[in-house]
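Consider the following input, taken from an annotated entry for YgzB family protein (Paenibacillus artemisiicola).
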Amino acid sequence: MFGKSSKINEFRLWGLLFTLFGMGLMILGTAGIVFWGQAGKVFAAIFMVIGMIAMLVSVAVYFWAGMLSTSATILICPECNRHTKILGKTDRCMYCKTKLTLDPKQATDLGDDESASEEVGQPQT
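Applying the prediction step yields:
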């Protein structure tokens, strides 16, 4: 969605957005009771249900991101020298946003004296 973040962090961001959206809808629904009294109860019930669905979607997104995180390849970022997780063949560092790849054909900044595995980081076992 926003482009300059790792894939796992993007999934977590979507989970956070769904959480905030759901909570906002539930608060808005509760405001219907305050401002409209008895007529606002139907308004509140509708917005509470929609907000709860958004909250459940956020739980599903967070669960999915957690499951992806457990199977992600861990490597050392060549820029910041921190352990980071990578999904797929290309991703970004979770900390410094450096583009990383496991495919030597996609690595662009290879010097003559460096091998492809030194540039993209060593996968940890």
